[in-house]
Design a protein that fits this description.
The complex is a heterodimer of chains A (792) and B (554).
Chain A (H helix, E strand, L loop, with lengths): L20 E5 L1 E2 L2 E2 L2 H13 L4 E5 L17 E6 L14 E5 L12 E7 L13 E6 L21 E4 L12 E7 L21 E6 L11 E4 L3 H17 L6 H4 L7 E5 L2 H6 L7 H13 L27 E5 L7 H5 L6 H9 L3 H7 L7 H8 L3 H5 L11 H6 L16 E5 L3 H12 L3 E5 L7 H5 L8 H12 L4 E3 L6 H10 L2 E4 L5 E2 L11 E2 H9 L10 E5 L3 H12 L4 E5 L8 H9 L3 E3 L4 E5 L4 E4 L4 E3 L2 E4 L3 E2 L11 E2 L2 E2 L12 E3 L9 H19 L31 H7 L11 H5 L5 E5 L5 E5 L9 H5 L5 E5 L2
Parallel strand pairs in A: 1-4, 4-5, 5-6, 6-7, 7-8, 8-9, 9-10, 10-11, 15-16, 15-18, 16-17, 18-31, 20-27, 21-22, 21-27, 22-23
Antiparallel strand pairs in A: 2-3, 11-13, 12-13, 14-34, 19-28, 24-25, 25-26, 29-30, 32-33
Chain B lengths: L21 E5 L9 H5 L5 E13 L6 E13 L12 H5 L5 E5 L5 H4 L8 E5 L7 H4 L1 E2 L21 E3 L10 E4 L2 E4 L10 E3 L2 E3 L9 H16 L7 E2 L7 H4 L7 E5 L6 H7 L9 E5 L10 E3 L6 H7 L7 E3 L9 H15 L6 E6 L4 H9 L7 E4 L4 E6 H6 L4 H15 L7 E4 L8 H11 L3 E4 L1 H8 L26 H4 L4 H23 L16 E3 L2 H7 L2 E2 L2
Parallel strand pairs in B: 11-21, 12-13, 13-14, 14-17, 17-18, 18-20, 20-21, 22-23
Antiparallel strand pairs in B: 1-4, 2-3, 5-19, 6-22, 7-10, 8-9, 15-16
Helix pairs in contact in B: 5-16, 10-12, 13-16, 14-16
The chains are: A alpha/beta (792), B alpha/beta (554).
Chain lengths: 792, 554
């Protein structure tokens, strides 16, 4: 290969023979050669065979780089002011010797050049170097050795600094070996500058001398190993020779202990590192509680354990707990019944095979179950029966009727308390029955010659076969109540009764028909007299007659039915408002052809022309008119101490009048159904029983269980015929455990078990240590017995 | 009208599930009926019940009907508005079989019904508005790209710090030259107390509103950040007094004590004064709360248990009302000056004292008053997106002023008076609403705030609060917080580990510190906070850009 002897616009010499030496000047005739031209000259010279270049620089950029290897060394000597990035992208085979200090970024992205600087390197030296060597006779500026690499295809780059380096040394260093010898450093306290090794991930830094901090999260400060020391000693010699400082060899290789090294933490080491300088638990123990006190800032006010709770808890830590609230609530049937007859218990007894016991149960509540429950009661129990939500209510009426032939229950031992009951109708009989069963001595005063009151006197026999009533009255008589029939109670009589009994119960009903006076009203019969006459055998002759009944309530309907029974051609019930009649009374009357007209306000009755005139100007043919607008009590015998209001005796919730020893029940306190009269009788009796037993408290009425708590889903729609057993199975046992074990089986945690007591009774109990308070038992109990409460 | 009989199954006035805000998705095929979901539901919105299926099968070659009844126990959502599913998802959390989860129902008519008894709907949480807030629309668009030196948040060390307290202008500094040296001459001059703090602080949440482990967890986290990490985060007590143990400890210096219209716990604080070994970081006088401006607080009697009663200095089991107004303050001039004086005096004028108001159109009037008061240390403005433990929904959703423009106009008012570097503004309300804590904080700082306060964000980030802007959970007012954050029921709050809360507080603030650097470094700011550096901000709406006096970028 031959080299050109001269290059345009500069004087250069190239020796012919084995070595071609060329001198290139950066300044010609006082004029600076541009970096571009100088670069072209260098590249051209090498192309032409120059293998030794002597460059007298004048601040040109990038001198000596990018000379691609030709299998032989290209030696470049540089002197004079050197520009930035001397030897940048230098390739293997290139050897650059700078005879003085260099400007910034010497050896930038070096790819194998060997660069020796006989002076200082300034900022950014060896930035991004990947191969080759940098020998520095002086020190380095800021950000030296940053971003260096090690490509596994090549040997790692080496950089050697004799004195010290500036700030931010080896930032993001990813490979290569740096050596900082620390000889005569310009900063005696710190030879690696401020915060070296930030972001360093690879390579090694050997250094000798004091430092002040480094990026502790990135690099590990270590002693040299034997291999390190051998490498350093071996490679120190050519370095020192190159920078002409061999006299320091001994000093620099005196002891491995003079040296330290940095290597980067591995990613694994970094990831394994703890995030926290101190755990917060240790902080609490060692600092916080030392300053604020044991247990923390609130401990002195907390009365619970200072431990954590899981979300799912048992025992006392549950938010809610289940309670087997058996019979805590009333079932809708018993609640709706004014007497609170527990039909659900009757069903339960039947299910247990105790049929007779079941049927007898009702006699504890009413003396007239076949008459009332079975015949004339609208059966409020059935109207509210939960079963009605599914198919049809239980046939409680038929079950009541089954009690007809039963004997009276056994009475309690006599108490000796004397109690008077005035009135032998349903209310009086009910209360007398209850009190007699409790062992009290009862004296009953009745103005009529028969017991039964309006049941006997006014209920049409077609609705109540007389033999049923008679049968039940005869059972009533079994209790040995002292009866005073045909005894009209007058002022004097009342006074006598009052004085001779501990308690007096007024149950005289309402037997005074209400009448409205208008022209012709004297020709009108009252419903009370009309019905009473029929039941006592005085039958009216209404054949072919047009009958009008004023007042279309249930009594009015009974009148209508009876009118047809006695031959009426037509019967019309009129009312000033929407008729109040309902149930069997209305069905029977309408079935017979009763017409109802409303609103009709009667003006007069023309008995002569058989016409009833109304205030709206209309009229109606009426051969026979009955007024059925209710009855009022006859209470003129009462002493002044017993208050009444608009003709009705006033009582409190316990049926007590303003005189504490006088009670009043039934229609005398306001018109109601016969079942209300029976209910009053029982509840008043309860209260009186407590009163005379000197335990004046009043029995609680249970709350009714909401329908939603009864799970009707368990039951199939029923299609069978009536039998007590079938009824008992149909009963949903509202609010009363039916012992089905659904809860026990459902509880996932096995917390519920059935416990049987010696007396044969049982209960379901919860193991607090297993129960989590989920409420499944309450949610799925067929009877609504389980309920959830706050666990406090 | 006469009601239908209870016996009849009718659906009059029964709400359908479609009206409810969350609908429980329960999977029969996965559920093992262990009851964990029903046991944890804070509002009993789900319960076990029984269902029946009736099927007719015909398996023969000719019609051979056979009815089959199948009873199953299921978990069912109740349709009672008083027990509506809040969507908290505690059921999902505890379900071992992933069989249950609430699903948001965007068609709900919840607000149509949530007014039983003639009272408006009350809840905790914050404004239910899942849309992007102004803060989240602000972008940092001035990046130092060659025009001026950018910093590298990863390798450059710099401190993100702010000053809380009034800063004297240079001409007012009591400096003089003595023998050629600059010395401070304090004689006769009031030098306002100033604290160097991290610009994000934990805002006022009271002992009472928060459970003991929540409050202590936050407090410990704050102490840890200061003591171990060297990050000077401060926390405000809220209006519920302070633990006497904390008042007497060296950590008091990291806490701002709040005084509000209820004055709860203040007699205990006054009693503790002579025993204090450190001054508190500051005193905050609460005049309003961003979430419910003009609406007071009420701590229900059932939450006033022994701990709360002792710390607040009240009897147990009474309702504690914190009225919306202070009784003894009648005008801005009189009210603010009087309170700042009293509180400064209590702490020997060594502690910065500043008022906190809710975001309002009238904030500038308050600010201008404070600017003339030499003892006023700052103004905290709490915007409409702030949270609360209990308020009427209508207050939360519809009352209040967004923080961005409110803060901005206040800052610009200070600029007009040349006092922008003297009276720090603290912004609050919805910072980190969508999780962008550092970005929201940085945006407010660049709009002119010296610092920001966070509440709901830290409850979510540090204690896993379920609440969100779809009205999820938001049960804070009921004392039934399923996370144990806002309840005084030990059965609930013992679910919460204060050590873990503290740990999360540390993580949150360390991360925020990193992120603030990530935002500020590329803008070339390092040594001081870019307060009011609004040329770095842009928004994609010209009207908003004009209102805020920042760039419009799209």
């Amino acid at each position: 290969m031959r080299a050109k002897k001269t290059v345009k616009n500069q004087k250069s010499k190239m020796n012919s023979g084995t070595t071609n030496v060329v001198t290139i000047k950066g300044k010609v005739s006082g004029k600076r050669v541009s970096s571009k031209i100088l670069e072209a000259q260098i590249q051209h010279s090498v192309q032409e065979g120059a293998r030794e270049l002597h460059i007298i620089a004048d601040g040109q950029h990038g001198i000596g780089g990018r000379i691609w290897p030709r299998g032989e060394a290209i030696k470049i000597t540089v002197e004079g002011p050197v520009g930035q990035r001397c030897g940048s992208m230098g390739m293997s085979g290139t050897e650059i010797l700078v005879k003085n200090s260099v400007s910034d970024d010497v050896g930038w992205i070096n790819c194998g050049a060997k660069i020796t600087v006989l002076g200082d390197v300034t900022n950014g030296a060896w930035n991004a170097a990947a191969q080759g060597t940098l020998y520095v006779q002086g020190g380095g500026g800021a950000r030296c050795d940053t971003m260096t690499k090690h490509n596994p295809r090549f040997e790692p780059p080496q950089s050697w600094y004799f004195r010290n380096v500036g700030d931010s040394f080896a930032e993001f260093k990813a490979g290569g070996i740096a050596v900082v010898c620390g000889v005569n450093p310009r900063n005696h306290e710190n030879i690696l500058g401020y915060r070296p090794c930030v972001g360093m991930v690879g390579g090694t830094i050997y250094f000798r001398g004091p430092i002040q901090g480094y990026s502790e999260k990135d690099v590990n400060l270590l002693d040299l190993t034997g291999q390190d020391w051998e490498w350093l000693k071996t490679n120190m010699k050519p370095y020192l020779e190159a920078i002409d400082r061999m006299e320091h060899y001994k000093e620099l290789t005196r002891s491995a202990n003079d040296w330290k090294k940095f290597i980067a933490y591995t990613p694994q080491e970094k990831r394994a590192r703890k995030w926290f300088k101190m755990s917060t638990s240790d902080f609490r123990k060692n600092l916080w509680e030392k300053a604020v006190g044991q247990g923390g800032i609130f401990a002195e006010y907390l009365d619970h354990e200072l431990t954590l709770l899981p979300y799912i808890t048992t025992g006392g830590d549950r938010r809610n707990k289940p309670v087997w609230a058996n019979e805590k609530y009333a079932p809708p049937c018993a609640y709706a019944c004014p007497t609170h007859i527990p039909s659900h218990k009757r069903a339960s007894l039947i299910r247990q095979g105790k049929l007779s016991e079941a049927l007898e149960l009702v006699l504890q509540y009413s003396p007239l179950p076949a008459t009332v429950c079975g015949q004339i009661c609208p059966n409020l129990c059935m109207q509210s029966c939960t079963r009605g939500r599914l198919d049809k209510p239980l046939n409680i009426d038929k079950l009541g009727k089954l009690a007809l032939d039963l004997p009276a229950p056994k009475k309690a031992a006599p108490t000796g308390h004397k109690i008077a009951v005035i009135g032998g109708g349903p209310a009086g009989m009910s209360t007398a029955w209850q009190l007699a069963l409790k062992g009290h001595t009862i004296y009953l005063y009745e103005s009529a010659d028969k017991l039964g009151g309006k049941i006997e006197q006014c209920i049409p026999r077609e609705r109540l076969p007389h033999e049923i009533l008679e049968k039940e009255i005869s059972r009533f008589r079994e209790l040995g109540i002292t009866l005073h029939l045909n005894t009209k109670v007058t002022k004097e009589k009342f006074d006598e009764i009052y004085k001779s009994h501990e308690v007096v119960i007024i149950a005289i009903g309402a037997h005074q028909p209400r009448k409205i006076a208008f022209p012709g009203s004297e020709d009108i019969v009252s419903a009370y007299d009309f019905l009473k006459d029929i039941n006592s055998g005085k039958h009216p002759d209404l054949k072919g007659k047009k009958v009008v009944v004023i007042g279309a309530g249930n009594v009015g309907m009974d009148v209508c039915s009876e009118a047809f029974n006695y031959g009426s051609e037509s019967v019309t019930a009129v009312d000033i408002q929407k008729p109040a009649a309902f149930g069997a009374e209305m069905e029977i009357a309408k079935g017979k052809g009763t017409q109802v007209a409303w609103p009709r306000l009667t003006e007069k009755y023309d008995a002569k022309n058989k016409k009833l005139h109304f205030k709206d100007g209309s009229s109606m043919d009426a051969d026979f008119v009955v007024m059925s607008i209710g009855d009022v009590p006859q209470i003129d015998f009462l002493p002044q101490g017993i208050h009444s209001e608009r003709g009705w005796i006033k009582v409190n919730d316990n049926y007590q009048t303003s005189d504490v020893k006088v009670f009043a029940i039934g229609d005398v306190t306001g018109l109601g159904l016969i079942t209300h009269a029976i209910g009053h009788g029982r509840l008043a009796a309860e209260n009186i029983h407590y009163l005379v037993s000197h335990a004046p408290r009043f029995p609680e009425i249970k709350q009714v269980i909401p329908y939603e708590r009864i799970k009707t889903e368990y039951y199939d729609v029923c299609k069978g015929d009536f039998s007590p057993e079938a009824e008992a199975n149909k009963c949903m046992s509202c609010a009363t455990c039916r012992d089905c074990r659904m809860c026990e089986t459902t509880c996932y945690w096995g917390a519920i078990s059935r416990v049987e007591h010696k007396d044969g009774s049982y209960e379901y109990v919860v193991d607090e240590n297993l129960c989590i308070g989920c409420g499944f038992c309450a949610g799925i109990c067929p009877c609504g017995v389980w309920e959830m409460t706050e666990n406090i | 009208m006469e009601p239908a009989s209870g016996l009849r199954l009718d659906h009059n006035h029964h709400l359908s599930l479609r009206e409810f805000p969350y609908i429980i998705r329960w999977r029969d095929d996965r559920c093992k009926r262990c009851g964990k979901c029903t046991a944890v539901c804070p509002v009993k919105a789900i319960e076990a019940t029984v269902k029946v299926q009736r099927l007719v099968k015909s398996e023969g070659p000719v019609p051979t009907p056979a009815a089959v009844r199948n009873i199953t126990h299921i978990v069912e959502q109740v349709t009672d508005m008083e027990r509506y599913c809040t969507g908290c998802g505690t059921c999902t959390l505890v379900c071992p079989n992933e069989a249950i989860e609430p699903e948001f129902n965007p068609q709900n008519k919840f607000l149509h019904y949530k007014n039983k008894g003639g009272d408006g709907y009350k809840r905790g949480g914050r404004r239910n508005d899942p849309a992007l807030s102004t803060l989240d629309r602000l972008k940092f668009t001035r990046i130092s790209m060659l025009t001026d030196p950018a910093l590298d948040a990863g390798r450059h060390e710099f401190r993100v710090r702010s000053l809380l307290g009034r800063i004297l202008p240079p001409e007012d500094l009591p400096l003089k030259l003595v023998n050629g040296k600059l010395t401070v001459d304090k004689a006769g001059i009031f030098i306002p107390p100033v604290r160097e703090i991290f610009p994000i602080m934990i805002g006022s949440m009271s002992i009472g509103a928060l459970s003991p482990p929540m409050w202590e967890g936050l407090a410990m986290g704050v102490a840890y950040l200061n003591e171990v990490e060297g990050l000077p985060v401060v926390m405000c007590s809220g209006e519920g007094g302070m633990s006497p143990r904390l008042l007497r400890s060296k950590y008091l210096k990291y806490f701002i004590i709040q005084i509000a219209s209820g004055y709860f716990g203040w007699d205990e604080i006054v009693h503790a004064l002579p025993h204090m070994v450190e001054d508190p970081a500051a005193i905050e006088i609460k005049y309003g709360q961003g979430a419910k401006p003009g609406d007071g607080g009420l701590l229900m009697a059932q939450k006033v248990l022994k701990l709360i009663a002792k710390i607040r200095g009240v009897p147990q089991f009474v309702d504690l009302a914190s009225p919306p107004t202070h009784q003894t303050k009648y005008s801005i001039e009189e009210a603010v000056a009087k309170m700042i004086q009293s509180m400064s005096m209590a702490f020997g004028f060594r502690v910065p004292v500043y008022p906190k108001i809710s975001g309002t159109k009238t904030a500038r009037a308050v600010l201008n008053n404070l600017a003339r008061n030499p003892y006023a240390a700052a103004l905290c403005i709490d915007g409409e997106d702030g949270g609360t433990g209990a308020a009427y929904n209508v207050s939360m959703d519809k009352m209040g002023h967004p923080i961005a423009s409110n803060l901005r106009e206040c800052y610009l008012d200070l600029v007009r008076q040349g006092k922008q570097n003297e009276l720090p503004l603290i912004a609050a309300g919805g910072i980190g609403k969508k999780g962008n804590l550092a970005a929201n904080a940085a945006a407010l700082i660049m709009l002119g705030a010296s610092g920001v306060a966070i509440g709901k964000y830290i409850m979510q980030a540090a204690a896993d609060c379920f609440g969100d802007e779809y009205n999820r959970c938001n049960l804070c007012n009921t004392g039934k917080c399923p996370r144990g954050i806002t309840t005084q029921d030990p059965k609930l709050y013992r679910r919460l580990d204060s050590d873990r809360v503290a740990e999360r507080v540390v993580e949150v603030f360390k991360a925020a510190d990193v992120e603030l650097r990530k935002l500020f470094a590329p803008m070339g700011r390092s040594t001081e906070l870019p307060i009011g550096m609004s040329d770095g901000l842009s928004i994609d709406d010209p009207a908003m850009a004009e209102r805020l006096g920042i760039n419009y970028a799209c």
